[in-house]
Amino acid sequence: MPLSRRQDLIRALPYARRYARALTGSQPRGDLLVAESLRGLAVAEAGPMPARQCLYQWISRQFRQNPASDAETLSVLERKLLLLTSLEELTTAEAARVVDIEEAEATEILAHAHAGLRKVAQTSILIIEDEPIIAMDIEDLVRWCGHQVAGVAATEADAVELARQTKPGLILADINLGAGGDGANAVASILRHHMAPVIFVTAYPERLLTGEAIEPAFVITKPFEPMTLAIATYQAVTGGPRIT
């Protein structure tokens, strides 16, 4: 593999990890999927797509759905397209090439998937965010997605106490809480007593996606659109599609 191509793939790895983890609902399964895709790319001829999109394509091809999950609200193809266009910010045309379908078909599938998101099981969400205006915006987005707000915490201590009181179905946490501490530490404390899926919100997702430690399965980038939050919460609450 040419050195320049290898360097491009290395730069693309954090985003590939984010996509694979969100798709599978798990850090270990997602990182294994990335590793398998890298092995495939190492022996394949370089295609015309950028390295990042090539990694997305190999991940999408390697991922297999369990037939038992056919009755789920969204199909695996719908989930892939939603994640690629929202979380990974590809255009519909780019996402269609990644999953090997025509753009017109991708457009139709995405429209159906967006409607399907409204049918997701509702849950209560604990918001950990120290900026009041941002916290209010996130509250509105959470309700727009059809969920309930369990509470809003601006510090580590408040987050732990609110989680103890409300037992949220999902945690949406900022990393940097300013003087209030660290969102990751707050989540770690909560998870020792209450298990719930977690979505981390950060302006620098690549810092959380190195593959060198226990890291979140779900990461979205600030600032984010309502649809990005809707898709991330769907994946987190459902745990990703069941796989073979």
Keywords:
244 residues; alpha/beta; Butyryl-CoA Dehydrogenase, subunit A, domain 3; Rossmann fold; 2 domains; five-stranded parallel sheet; 10 helices; globular; PhyR_sigma2; Sig_transdc_resp-reg_receiver; CheY-like chemotaxis protein; phosphoprotein
Please outline what is shown here:
This protein is an alpha/beta fold and 244 residues long. Helix content is 54%, strand content 10%. Keywords: Phosphoprotein.
Could you walk me through the main structural features you see in this protein, from its secondary elements to its overall organization?
The chain is an alpha/beta fold. It folds into two domains: 3-117, Butyryl-CoA Dehydrogenase, subunit A, domain 3; 124-238, 3-Layer(aba) Sandwich (Rossmann fold). The protein contains ten helices and five strands, in the order ααααααβαβαβαββα. It has helices at residues 3-24, 27-43, 51-62, 76-87, 92-98, 103-117, 132-144, 156-166, 183-191, 226-238; strands at residues 124-128, 148-153, 170-174, 198-202, 218-221. It has a five-stranded parallel beta sheet with strand order 2-1-3-4-5, sandwiched between helices. α9 (183-191) links the parallel β3 and β4 (198-202). The chain is globular and about 55 Å long. The two termini are 31 Å apart. The model is unreliable at 67-71 (pLDDT under 50). InterPro entries: Bact_response_regulator, CheY-like_superfamily, PhyR_sigma2, Sig_transdc_resp-reg_receiver. Keywords: Phosphoprotein. The modification 4-aspartylphosphate is found at residue 174. Residues 124-237 form the Response regulatory domain. This is CheY-like chemotaxis protein.
